[in-house]
UniProtKB/TrEMBL annotation:
Record organism: Acinetobacter indicus CIP 110367
Keywords, comma-separated and alphabetical: DNA-binding, Transcription, Transcription regulation
Coiled-coil residues: none
Molecular functions (GO terms): DNA-binding transcription factor activity; transcription cis-regulatory region binding
UniProt key word Transcription regulation: yes
Family that this chain belongs to: Belongs to the LysR transcriptional regulatory family.
Domain (HTH lysR-type): residue spans on this chain: 1-60
Protein name per UniProt: HTH lysR-type domain-containing protein
Matching CDD domains: PBP2_LTTR_substrate (cd05466)
InterPro entries: LysR_HTH_N, LysR_subst-bd, WH-like_DNA-bd_sf, WH_DNA-bd_sf
Pfam families reported for this sequence: HTH_1 (PF00126), LysR_substrate (PF03466)
Length: 296
């Protein structure tokens, strides 16, 4: 069976126009070419698609059944061609983006929507991981882009563009011992269990670690659940609390005695200089750079 796109277009047009001659006029072809194409399609399919009785061809039941599938098939064939053309221009076969766990609540999906609009056939995979693991994914090139907090020390192999600021706040359940103190001394923090969002690799020291005793998890949702149970205090995204009024009522933002209880960071889109970025990744980076130029 050797059915091509042009045959399907002619078949669809004949059914919709009701005759070979009307279909030929719409397609800019001579009637004999349309009739020949339908005849060849019938041979390829081993089916009678039209009854040639009277002045106009009448589609058979089999033809009407196939017609229902034809439009979707043509759409898929066009998408396949567009995807092949994009791949030939340097589009990635897939784009892997890792978002640091604490930033899941931030407004990053707008950039994914932009990519989908610009590259509708692109396979996009989104992962969530602690900051250290997200950086490791970039280094080993299992992710091409990462949405992460600013780093104290920049690796020579990384490159980035700033997105925005994001805040983290120390919290505890309202009946937790630290929540009863105002302000909270550093000594009290030091000797109270902390729930830390940290790398799965236990050899890596967690960031924003203050307490001598701590439990670690790889995502802030688990951390939040443990904190709500009164099992420790921890640092959570401020936006997470702002989006959930019930959570805001259950948790107390801790007032530290010796330093500000609000940790503000720049959020960056980061990539590795060693990674060969495709069309979509480069498009997003350039979009963000142009966006920054227009706002500065």
């Amino acid at each position: 069976m050797n059915v091509n796109q042009e045959q399907l277009i002619i078949f669809k047009t004949v059914i919709e126009c009701g005759s070979f001659s009307a279909a030929a006029r719409q397609l800019g072809k001579v009637p004999s070419a349309v009739s020949m194409s339908i005849a060849n399609l019938e041979i390829d399919l081993n089916l009678n698609l039209f009854q040639r009785i009277g002045r106009e061809p009448v589609p058979t039941a089999q033809a009407l059944t196939l017609y229902e599938k034809t439009e979707q098939l043509l759409v898929e064939m066009n998408q396949w061609k567009q995807h092949a053309a994009a791949l030939s221009e340097g589009l990635e076969s897939e784009l892997n983006i890792v978002v640091v766990s604490e930033l899941i609540h931030s407004d990053w999906t707008q950039y994914i929507a932009l990519l989908q609009q610009e590259f509708p056939t692109l396979q996009i995979n989104i992962f969530s991981a602690p900051q250290e693991d997200a950086m490791h994914m970039l280094v080993e090139q299992s992710a091409q882009l990462a949405v992460m907090f600013e780093r104290e020390q920049l690796d020579s192999g990384e490159q980035f563009v700033e997105l925005k600021r994001e805040a983290l706040v120390p919290v505890a359940a309202r009946d937790f011992a630290l929540a009863q103190q105002a302000p909270v001394s550093f000594e009290a923090i030091l000797h109270s269990r902390q729930i830390v969002v940290a790398s799965r690799d236990r050899r890596i020291q967690p960031e924003l670690l203050f307490s001598k005793q701590y439990w670690r998890t790889d995502n802030h949702h688990t951390a939040c659940s443990l904190i709500l149970q009164g099992l420790g205090w921890g640092v959570l995204p401020l936006q997470m609390l702002n989006e959930n009024p019930n959570l805001k009522q259950q948790l107390q933002v801790l007032d530290f005695l010796d330093f500000s209880p609000k940790f503000e960071y720049f959020v960056d889109l980061v990539w590795s200089r060693e990674s060969k970025l495709g069309l979509a990744a480069r498009f997003l980076i350039n979009h963000l750079r142009n966006q920054r130029k227009s706002t500065n």
